[in-house]
């Protein structure tokens, strides 16, 4: 196989079935197909419906990308029928069952690789989410090279790796005791809950060990970030893991027009994105605050009301995304009065929102976010400063990257909660102060906004031809082809 010819490269992408992981891998699929590589995107029927509009647009544009639907054996794992995404898991008690079900996809994936691939276009390489360690076994059995797609920031990956290597969690007894992450070029102080790796939770010990083993056998790591934002993190992480690392983001910038941004991640949702865009069009540039905490984090009714009171007090125009699960009778009654009081000044959107479309609008002046990496990086790419309010997992270290390293955001400074649980109630005055520092804030606010805009410009240049991420993507494709030649895999071998 010619490493210089991407059209002879066939990459098989296997995402974790969770919106925050699946969406950036779908963007990566588009980027790879745009560069001429053939891409098979592994998914399940429910998730395929969410991605269908994006895939159809790719096919219409002549891109060599296809969705491959594998059956998701919910019944075998004791899950409700159709429970094919993390955001559809009805309770924390079923999380173990969901991840067990993911392991059951190994057989169907192997059959696809063996039987449904033309000999002239055999798989070059698997790119799998880090949270799917069972793909290592499939790749090894078929002698297919395997790269890992990392969803979080490189800052998070580096910090948690160093904390683990120095066994700091074993040396620190108190959950709230502050310690410095060792070996960093900048002093970053954390506690145990802020520096947990994914699945470093009670009951997931075996799964975490499997992830670590799969990392050790991978041929390299693909990161949704860009070099100009995390240069020392990327350099230090590459040295620490001793493997090739390709920063190829922000992958969200592959969506150039409004229609592409609108269908990203949930193309089957009946959302009229035109309404919010028309509303934003009538606002002054950089005057609107957008509030959204992603698809998983939960906000209590009391906290929603405190956020609403803070929004009212600031006087800034706002767009506020409230999840369907948060709309209790108590919230509905309060929300009705809240909307009446703020008619014309604010927009409250229920359910799924087209976040990328909103963030990229020139009226956006600030973004209150849970600091999920996709949301964080999308705000960076749009040049929008942030009010940071992490809830769990990598979000606490993402906040530190934004606030302490990049200095493009202000922390609400809530105490880290237990995993996936609501934290302590933050009063409206605290929330309001953070909002005001980002949206107004005098000299401090203006300097923050300038840094955010400059970083957004660097993000755009990184993905353009000749940019760092553009070049890194080309090197990834070439390396995948080179690894495939070394492996010399042929269909039918097992």
UniProtKB/TrEMBL annotation:
Source species, domain of life: Eukaryota
Presence of keyword Protease: no
UniProt KW keywords: Glycosyltransferase, Transferase
Residues annotated as transmembrane: none
Keyword Glycosyltransferase appears in the UniProt entry: yes
Pfam families reported in the protein's UniProt record: Glyco_transf_N, UDPGT
Glycosyltransferase N-terminal domain boundaries: 11-251
EC numbers, comma separated: 2.4.1.-
Top-level EC class: transferase
One annotated GO molecular function: UDP-glucosyltransferase activity
Family: Belongs to the UDP-glycosyltransferase family.
Protein name: Glycosyltransferase
Organism of this sequence: Apostasia shenzhenica
Encoding gene (name): UGT73C1
């Amino acid at each position: 196989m010619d490493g210089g010819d991407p059209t002879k490269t066939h990459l098989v992408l296997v995402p974790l079935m969770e919106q925050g992981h699946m969406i950036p891998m779908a963007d990566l699929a588009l980027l790879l197909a745009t560069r001429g590589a053939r891409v098979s995107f592994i998914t399940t029927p429910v998730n395929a419906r969410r991605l269908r509009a994006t895939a159809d647009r790719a096919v219409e544009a002549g891109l060599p990308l296809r969705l491959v639907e594998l059956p998701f054996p919910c019944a075998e794992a004791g899950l409700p029928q159709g429970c094919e995404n993390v955001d559809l898991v009805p309770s924390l008690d079923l999380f173990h069952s969901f991840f067990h079900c993911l392991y059951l996809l190994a057989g169907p994936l192997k059959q696809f690789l063996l039987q449904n691939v033309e000999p002239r276009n055999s798989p070059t390489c698997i790119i799998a989410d880090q949270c799917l360690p069972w793909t290592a076994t499939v790749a090894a059995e078929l002698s297919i090279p395997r790269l890992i797609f990392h969803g979080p920031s490189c800052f998070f990956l580096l910090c948690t790796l160093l904390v683990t290597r120095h066994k700091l969690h074993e040396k620190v007894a108190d959950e709230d005791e502050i310690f410095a992450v060792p070996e960093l070029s900048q002093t970053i102080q954390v506690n145990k809950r802020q520096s947990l790796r994914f699945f470093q939770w009670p009951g997931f010990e075996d799964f975490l060990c499997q992830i670590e083993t799969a990392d050790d056998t991978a041929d390299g790591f693909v990161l949704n970030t860009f070099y100009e934002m995390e240069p020392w993190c990327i350099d230090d992480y590459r040295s620490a893991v001793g493997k090739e690392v390709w920063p190829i983001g922000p992958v969200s910038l592959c969506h150039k027009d409004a229609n592409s941004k609108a269908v990203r991640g949930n193309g089957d949702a009946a959302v009229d994105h035109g309404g919010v865009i028309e509303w934003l069009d009538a606002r002054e540039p950089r005057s609107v605050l957008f509030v959204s905490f992603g698809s998983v984090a939960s906000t209590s009714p009391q906290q929603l009301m405190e956020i609403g009171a803070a929004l009212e007090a600031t006087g800034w125009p706002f767009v506020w995304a409230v999840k369907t699960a948060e709309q209790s009778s108590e919230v509905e009654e309060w929300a009705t009065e809240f909307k009446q009081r703020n008619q014309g000044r604010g927009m409250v959107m229920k359910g799924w929102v087209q976040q990328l479309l909103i963030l990229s609008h020139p009226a956006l002046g600030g973004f209150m976010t849970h600091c999920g990496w996709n949301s964080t990086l999308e705000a960076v790419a749009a040049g929008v400063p942030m009010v940071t309010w992490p809830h769990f997992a990598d979000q606490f270290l993402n906040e530190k990257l934004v606030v302490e390293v990049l200095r493009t955001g202000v922390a609400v400074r809530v105490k880290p909660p237990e995993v996936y649980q609501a934290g302590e109630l933050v009063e409206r005055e605290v929330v309001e102060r953070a909002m005001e520092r980002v949206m107004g804030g005098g000299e401090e606010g203006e300097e923050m906004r300038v840094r955010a805009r400059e970083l957004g410009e660097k993000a755009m240049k990184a993905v353009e031809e000749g940019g760092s991420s553009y070049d890194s993507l080309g090197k990834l494709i070439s390396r995948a082809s080179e690894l495939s030649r070394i492996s010399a895999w042929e269909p039918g071998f097992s």
